[in-house]
Structures are given as structure tokens and as C-alpha cells.
Amino acid sequence: MSSKEPTKTEPPDPEFEALIRYIQENRGLDFRGYKRTSLQRRIRRRMEEVNCDDFATYHGFLEAHPQEFVELLNMVLINVTSFFRDTEAWEVLKNDVVPRLLAELGDHGPIRIWSAGCASGEEPYSLAMLFAEALGSESFCSRVKIYATDLDDAALNIARHAMYAPRDVESVPQPLLEKYFERTNNHYVFQRELRKCVIFGRHNLVTDAPISRINLLVCRNLLIYLESETQNIVLPRLHYALANGGVLFLGKAETQLARSKMFEPVDLKSRIFRKVPQEWRRSLGGSLTISPDLPNNRQSFQTRLLESIVDNSPAAFLAVSGDGTLVFANAMARRLLDVAEVDIGRPFQDMAISYRPAELRSRIEEVQTTGRTLRLEHQEYARPPAEPIRLTIEVSLLYGADGKPFVTLLSFTDTTRVHMLQKELEAAQESLETTIEELQSSNEELETTNEELQSTNEELETTNEELQSTNEELETMNEELRSANEELEVANEELRRQGEESGEYRRYSESILRSMDVGIIVLDQDLRVRSWNRWSENMWGLRSEEVVGEEFLDLDIGLPVQRLRADLERILEKEIPQQPVVLDALDRRGRPVTCRVRLSPLLYESRETRGAVLIIEDITEQSRAETFAGYLGRVIGESLNEVYFLDATTFRFQLVNRGAETKLGYSLEQLKQFTVFDLMPEVTAERFHALVEPLLSGEKQEVVFESRMEGRMRGTYPVEVCLQLFNTEQPPILLAIVHDTTERQRVGADGDEAKAVG
């Protein structure tokens, strides 16, 4: 055992934990994963500013002054950021990483970027400029989506407005500043089109589900504020969020990935890493060729060599057959795991090693089912009276020459020293991270102090300029007062003009409603009539002044308004249009009419429903036409003549009437598999195309010819075919009306016989 023991964690301060719980309950911020030393230091700094001596006192201060949350969160969440922070790392990202990433994704694939801990937005907008330069603005807007998340709602609000002071954009190169920012007064606003591609949202890396399929994930100087256990939770989340080949960009003070197997370095100095896919796959291996035994049954040299290698291996090996029997144990397994020769052939589940140091029976079944290798790291194995050791266990399938698994191999490796070294390394790493975090915090505080001093200097200069301009302002004030009276007169004239325009607009709107050839009725939220146009007056016999302000559902008109009650209530509740309703009604003269009523919500600019709009159409003639069309369709469908609707390109059956199904002996689904000339033995495909060509070219409107049709049950029979093309239909339809001429031929034959007899 090493003489270096990790420092024991100090017991939590109950008052401090109560304060953290209160912040979480009132602001939804979960600080449980943050380093307690760093968190306490920042909260104490704020406590000193408000003269609170302990956490309990500050807890009471927060309850009495809710506005204090804003200052506290600004202190704790450390919203220190800037455009292109750490220029050298951004240059590596621009020159090496982004071109390689774009080459891998191709010219048309979507690009997903995540900026975690984005603070006031400088980082995601830096990424937007970087990719816009590489892709061009048009391609950027169509392909790139940048997700920017943070815990601080105030910082996110600043980021969404994308408005920055001159000192905030000092680190932006001048060409990019002129290209992507607009100057308004004394601020710079990020370009609107690119800003639409940046989506801001509140997100907690520790507790919220990560965004998936990310190609570039930027998480700078955030992990250093988290506890080691919390980092071990966050890193797999970052790994999951990245697509295969995705890139992770950390801050210069973060070294967590130096020992992680989930990422490989791309540029370690700039803290740029690439995701390592964690997909355990095992291909079928070949088998060793053992020379055949000699006639005297002595072992071959190869067999003795293999046995010697296995027995002298520092790893312990056990082999379990498919039926769960232990079939092999090497010398190290017998020494390390207390497996004797007599145990060979016993069921593995009856042995102590099957459940100690880890439960292995279910793991064996899992490996046999999935075919994947399973690895258990650093399992504690007690061997009294000796000190416990750590074993790394690997469970895998062995395959025979036929490519099929025939045995499960368990290997046990003593990794006690590796485990101890790893623990010592983690302790040293955590200490180093804490030191780096403190240095980083001090550096950020110095940067903040420098910015505040610069701001104070600018304010003093501004104050001097303001004092100088005050005298000029006093001199001009008298002139402004004189001109104010003139402006008021102009304003009065403008109000009068707006009143006239408003009256003209009202008359214009009313004239439009009067001119509509449909009924338009507008109802308020209480279903009282607000508008009633001239069509409604003519149809129902009530003037506008008689119904405006009345309950619509109480009106005594020829329309059955009570049947609209449920739809109107749904519109007011769900704020979505309803399906049109067809109602039978009576007009003001008592004539029956058919009306289609469309109901929509009355929406103002705030998208809030203020009532309902009814549009009523008289569809009496349309309904009669549709009834007649249905009647005509039924007559044709029941006709004994054969009627075919054919595809004008392939000449396949699309629709036939009942007479066609009866005479041909096929159902419609069966006929759809044929072309029409498949059922005409005397007509080839080329001949049929030649017959139809005058129709397709527009030379003729109708083609009539005689042929023979082949029915399924009755065989062939003579027919007369009349073809017409309906080009205006989509798609065009070729109509064939087929007359069975069997009876016509029979009459002709009887006439010939009569002549012959005469």
C-alpha cells in the first residue's frame, strides 16, 4: 500500500447545505455537483459585501431581500467570457479542426454545435463567425445549428439580445467586426440572419439530458468547478452527446481528459479532443493448428508449448462450457482462485469463484447471448489472512475453426498496483485541478477588476464631457421650449389626420364585408354578434343593427345555430379552426338551402383568441351537382356495358364497372395487374399503341375498332371498343367503352341461313 492516503472529506456544514437547498428550491439551480470549497469561497465573498457573518444570517438576508439572488448568482456562476478567448486555441480550431470536420461531414449534411456554459453569448457567436467564414453565410444558415446553454437566465437574456458595448468586442478582429456586427448608438449588435441559427436555452450539464448528435461541443473552463465524482458523471454525458468523430473543445485550465479513455487528443495544448467510440466488438478469430499425435500417443511439441504458455501466464484462466461446466483452469487459476484439479468437470455455479469477487454467472450468460466481451475493472478479492487484492475480470467467447463459439473464457488479472496508482493519480489530479481552478478564479477576478477600472476611467471621461455639454444644453433649452409648442400643434394635426384615416379604414372594412358573396359573422368571446354583413341580411332577413350585440345562439333565423354551439365552444377553448359544417336551412323566403359553415378563431396580434369568425356559403347548387354526379356514377357502375378507366401511359386498368368485372371474370384488384391488350388475343402491344396514337397526339377525339376479348370463365367473345382520352384529368385517363357484339353476330348468322334456304 502507498504511504500517500487521499485526504478525507470534511463533514458538510449543515447551515451551508441548508442555504444551497434554499437557492435550489427558489431558483431551480442545482449546485450539488460543484466543488464545495470553491462554492463556499464565492458565497463568503458576497456575504462580506452585504456584512453577513455566517451562512444562517445570509440565508435570512436572502429571504428578506429576493433581489439579492441576482448579485449572488453573478458571483457564483462566474460569467467571465469574451469573443475568441485564448486566441491561440481558436486559431488551431479555425485552421486545423473546422476544415477537417467539414471535410468529414461533406457538402450537404447538417452541422450541430453545442456551446455549454455560454454565459452572455460571446462564445456561440464566435463559433458562428468561425463557421460562417468557412462555409459562407448562405450555406451556414441552411446547415448549421448552434445550441447555447447556461444556468444563468440573466446571462441568457443578454445573449439573446446580442448587443455588446465597444469594450466587449475589442477581441473581435476588425474585418469580422465590420462584417458581422451592426453599429447602433454606442453598441454593436450581432448580425440578425446568423443570430437566428443560435438557439439559447437553460440547461444543467449534471442533471439534464444532453443534446445528441453534436459535431463540435465547446465546454470551456466549466468542469474545473465540479467535484471529481460530478466530473465522472458529466464526461460520459459529453461523450454521449457527440456524434462519432465529434470534437470536444475545453478550456486551457482543464486537464480531466488526460486520463479518460473516452476521448483522444487532437491538440493537447489547446485542449481539443476527439470522441473515441465505445463499441465493444469482437470478430471471429482463427484457431491454432495443432500437429496430429504421434502413433505412440505422445504429446506433440505444439501441444506442450501451448500448455506451458498457459500455465506460466501471470493471468488466471478458467474455461466454462456451454452447459455451465468448468472444463479448464491453468496453474495461476489454481493458485490464485483456490481451484483444484477435482473441480474440473464440476458445474461452475456450484463454485465460490462464480459469485466472489463478482457475480459471474449472469455475466457469462450475457456474453453468450450478445457475443461481446465483458470487462469488470478492479474487483476487490479478499484472501484471508492476506491483504485484499484487486482483480480485473474479462469474460469472452472462444470460437472454433467452424466459426461457432464452443467455450467461455474468464481471465483474472491482478491489477492491485494499477488500482492504487490510479487512486493516487486521481487524488493528485484533483489537487492540481483545485489549484488551477483557484488560479483561474484569481485571474478572472483580476480581469474583472481591470475591466471595472477601465469602466471607471471611461465614466470619468464621460462625466467631464457631460459637464462641458451641460452649458450648451442650457443654451439650447430655450429654443427647444419654443419649438415644443410648434411640435404640439403638429401633433394635434397628426391626431386629427389619424382620426380621419381610422374612419376611412372602418368604412373601407365595412364595404369589403358588404361586397363578399358569402355570409360573414363575427362573434366576441361571449358569442355576441359584432359584425353582420349584407349577404347575411339578404339571406336571413335581419338587418345588422337588429342583431349586433345579440346572443348568436338565441337568434331566430333559418339556420339551426344551436348545432354550432359545441364547435364554437371548442374554438374559444382550443384556439384552433374547426372542420366545416354542412347544414340544411331555410332562407328568409322559406326556401330550403344547403349551407357550409366554416368556423375560425378571431386572433389579435398577441395570438389571443378574442372570439370566432363564421363564414357561411350557399352550396345548394353545388350539393345538387354532386348528388347528380353520384347518381350518374352509380348508373355507369351498374351498367351491363363494360367501362374501363385505363392509365394513358401504361394502358393498365385503373377502374372498371361491375359489367366489366362480370364479363371478364376478374376482380378490380386482379385487373389492375393487366394491360388492356393482355385480354385481347388478336391485338399486340404494338398494334394497340398504333390504335391509340391518334388520341394521344390530339389528331382524333375518338377511336373505334372491333376485336375479341378473353374472359376468365367464358373464353373469347367479339367486342366493339370505343376509346376516348381525357387529357385534362391528372393523371390523364383513357376511357374504353366495350360492347359485347356476340348477339349482333348471331342475328347476322341467322339471316344468312334464311337467305341460303330461300
TrEMBL record:
InterPro entries: Bact_Chemotaxis_MeTrfase, CheR_C, CheR_MeTrfase, CheR_N, CheR_N_sf, PAC, PAS, PAS-like_dom_sf
Record keywords: Hydrolase, Methyltransferase, S-adenosyl-L-methionine, Transferase
Domain PAS per the UniProt entry, residue ranges: 505-575
GO MF: protein-glutamate methylesterase activity; protein-glutamate O-methyltransferase activity
GO biological process, one term: methylation
Catalytic activity line of the entry: L-glutamyl-[protein] + S-adenosyl-L-methionine = [protein]-L-glutamate 5-O-methyl ester + S-adenosyl-L-homocysteine
The EC number(s) this enzyme carries: 2.1.1.80
Residue span(s) of domain CheR-type methyltransferase: 4-279
Chain positions covered by the region annotation Disordered: 440-464
NCBIfam families: sensory_box
Stated name of the protein: protein-glutamate O-methyltransferase
